[in-house]
Amino acid sequence: MLFSLANLPYWIFLGMGVLLFLFVIISGGGDADADADAEFDADTDGEFSFGQILGWVGIGKAPLILLLAVDLSLWGVLGLFLNTLAKSIINGQFSALVRGAVLLISLILSLLVGRFIAEVIGKIFAEFGEDASSDRLIGCVGTVTSFYIPSETEGKIGQVDVLDPKRNFLTISAALPEWATIAPQRGDQVIVIENQPQNYLVIAKDTTDEQLWLANSSQRNKT
User: What value does the CA radius of gyration of the chain take, rounded to a whole number of Å?
Assistant: First the structure.
């Protein structure tokens, strides 16, 4: 029953997912797909948007090739399981309607669950593939996941999720520089501006703090 012709599509999905996983491992975490991967922001006005759908399925949360590998593998495994279960329950002809329902349900489940698995695997690749404390994160945009980002003078730190230039998904400890005037809250976007021994310094994106930092950076480059 598991190797019946009706299960062929799911074996193909599973095989494609495994091959993509092998490619991800060989390429070091999906770096080859960095240019194809894109980060989509949700509509800040609270309206339903296409960007929100892409975020729900994991686009921009992990390297795209890794996300595809997870989704295809899950689609194959879930499809095989649901197809076999449906055949054991239904005594009679396995209709096209049932096959279509299994195909759709397994796809939806794989997309919803796959994004979380891909994020976890992406973090593991990032941790083992390259030191997260390097200067490669300077200038990268992240999203605040803690309640807020405290000033470095407070002796506290917050947390930020960042995609590095190779599209590795990282969670870093962060604080605001002394001169910053705006404290980003959970969900706000920030820019990484400096690497310190214990954490990073970040500032709120698209604010006067960013303009001041850019102006100071330009002056330093001229000198």
Answer: 22
Residue 185: name the closest of 202, 197, 166, 208 by CA.
202
Which one-letter DSSP state was computed for residue 30? S
The answer to whether 168 touches 155, Cβ cutoff 8 Å, is no
pLDDT tens per residue across span 17-62: 899 888 877 765 554 344 334 344 444 444 445 555 655 666 666 6
Which secondary structure element, helix H or strand E, spans residue 101, and what is its range? helix 96-129
Which range has the worst mean pLDDT, 50-64, 88-102, 103-117, 191-205?
50-64
Rounded Cα gap, residues 121 and 104, in angstroms: 25
- Please report where in the chains the tokens 């501006």 appear, as a residue: 193
What's the length of the chain?
223
Is 154 buried (19+), middle (13-18) or exposed (0-12) by CB count in 10 A? exposed
Residue 23, token pair as written in the block: 């490619």
Look-up of token digits 């489940």: 109
pLDDT tens, position by position, 133-160: 457 788 889 999 989 999 988 888 899 9
- Which residue reads 């002809």 in tokens? 93
